[in-house]
Write a structure and sequence with these properties.
alpha+beta; two-stranded antiparallel sheet; two-stranded antiparallel ribbon; 8 helices; elongated
């Protein structure tokens, strides 16, 4: 934990220096001063942003998660089933083999959006603010079908796209591209 009072003062100093101002007297620095150099000022902006994160973290440095990464060995451990599964279940299986505590994970939404982008699903607006992904003519060729599913909140039945074994394998093979 850092002393917030000291961190706030350091942030004030870096904010001033990022604008070419001497933080001790409030005067603009001369053109030949190192604080007048644009590269130094950009660095001071960066430092100020880091200090702001420490301040908003209550004096602690918040660790951000690394980008998603997966090895071929991890891919080989992903459960691929003969039974078709929904996209969220497939995302859960992918995330089960990576270190989700230190990196960002894959979401079912990200996978399904990639499927829309590549023409394997269609995006349809059903309400003013709601869209759903549905199968299209290309879906069965890729290994996507539908199954009836019940919305537990409303009791309504809807059709959920599900992915057969070959579609699951294809997604796993392309997961880095999908989760950019």
């Amino acid at each position: 934990m850092y002393d917030i009072k000291l961190v706030k003062r350091a942030k004030l100093y870096s904010d001033a220096m990022s604008q070419g101002i001497n933080p001790l007297n409030g005067d603009y620095v001369r053109d030949d001063d190192s604080l007048a150099q644009e590269r130094i000022q950009h660095c001071m902006v960066f430092i100020s942003q880091i200090l702001e994160n420490v301040i908003t973290g209550g004096g602690a440095v918040k660790k951000s998660k690394a980008s998603f990464a997966i090895t071929n060995e991890q891919k080989s451990r992903i459960e691929i089933s003969d039974e078709p599964v929904g996209v969220n279940e497939l995302a859960r299986r992918i995330n089960a083999v990576v270190d989700a505590s230190s990196m960002r994970t894959v979401s079912g939404t990200k996978i399904a959006s990639w499927m829309v982008k590549n023409g394997y699903l269609d995006l349809v607006t059903i309400d003013e603010n709601k869209t759903i992904k549905i199968v299209n003519d290309k879906s069965p060729c890729f290994g996507i079908s539908v199954r009836d599913k019940i919305n537990l909140d409303t009791g309504d039945t809807y059709q959920q796209p599900v992915y057969n074994k070959s579609a699951q394998q294809y997604i796993v093979e392309h997961i880095e591209e999908i989760n950019k």
